[in-house]
Amino acid sequence: MNNVKYDVNDMPKPGLLVGLSFQHLFAMFGATVLVPILVGIDPAIALFSSGLGTLAHLTVTKYKIPAYMGSSFAYIAAMQTLMKTDGIAAVAQGAMAGGFVYLLVALIVKYAGKDWIDKVLPPIVVGPIIMVIGLNLAANAVNDATTLNKSYSIYALLISMVTLFAVILFNMYGKKIIGVIPILLGLIVGYIFSAVLGLLTGHSFINFSEVAVAHWIQVPNFDIPFVDYSFKLYPSAILTMAPIAFVTMTEHFGHVMVLNSLTERDYFKDPGLDRTLTGDGLAQIIAGFFGAPPVTSYGENIGVMALSKVYSVYVIAGAAVIAVLMSFIGKLSALLHSIPTPVLGGLSIALFGVIAASGLKILVEHKIDFDNKKNLLIASVILVSGIGGLMIDLGGLQITGVASSTILGILLYQILPDPKKGSKD
């Protein structure tokens, strides 16, 4: 592999390992804690569950796949509704039901085989889907990069651009350790610049008040439904959240495809799609047990790997351990909360763009022929439906973005005839 700094099974030196792990922690932190904030759950619980779920996923996949598990956005609407009606116990049952759906599909894959994957997900479908995974998040990244207090701010744009260009410069010209942790260093530069800019302009871009009042050791507000409450079955919650697992499952396939491309391995075959699905399902069940939002593999962390060329599973495991520990350290958690949104926006522009470019790389490497009308139409439909957020509403079950474009791409590949014999598809 070209320019790989640490391959999947390489372990960096302890000091560097911590720095690389923190880089992944910062990448997933914003999204992972945003979901529980929107739903009304303690963010520390989500941080704890994401770390524990990641360790479970790594164990199930025999430490062969560098994937981080973070809070899933797909379940937000369902969780918000259930929190208003039946509460956290119902959300937890729904989350665990989604995890069991993963386990069921994994069982089917194990015994039915996986040869169908190449036929269902050829390069002309995979490449555009990966592009959608990155570009689907573009609007959120730009919004974070230009917004302060829910309105456009030139200061926000300045902060995000300083952060972005710091990442680019560290990645392009950094030597040795500097070139390995461009995201972490870019974040530090953005944070310091935000503080300095605040002093020069009289604005407050960083809120230190939460850091001042937070305790050093602070146990997350665990709300374990099957321990804290008498058991009660919530069929509506299960029927509402379980089907959403099929939506996040398509994103899971996409993320594994990106990792296949980055690491030049085939994780569908080794350790096997059944194990990757089992790992995701177990992580989701763990999250539900502790009263946290369901988790899924994170594109943000894949972006970090693509940019840093560090694919070590030990780095991912380190990030998971730090996430669990940080959920108990009030001061550090509060400090992470204080990172200005424009800084995260600047990082996101780089990370999500790299994911999209990885999809383009697949099309180039497989020499996809776009003079072939079938290829052109499939790519066009996937890109527009995915980036545009096409929604398929099946009586309460909403399939949007990446999932809907994946379904359309797979169907078109199977249905459309190849108009040019011997064309590259």
TrEMBL record:
Its main location: membrane. It comes from the Bacteria. It comes from Streptococcus salivarius K12. PANTHER family: PURINE PERMEASE C1399.01C-RELATED, URIC ACID TRANSPORTER UACT. The chain crosses the membrane at residues 20-53, 88-108, 120-139, 151-170, 177-200, 237-259, 311-330, 342-364, 376-392, 398-416. PROSITE patterns: XANTH_URACIL_PERMASE. GO terms for molecular function: xanthine transmembrane transporter activity. GO terms for cellular component: plasma membrane. This is Uracil permease. It is a multi-pass membrane protein. NCBIfam families: ncs2. InterPro entries: NCS2, Xan_ur_permease. Belongs to the nucleobase:cation symporter-2 (NCS2) (TC 2.A.40) family.
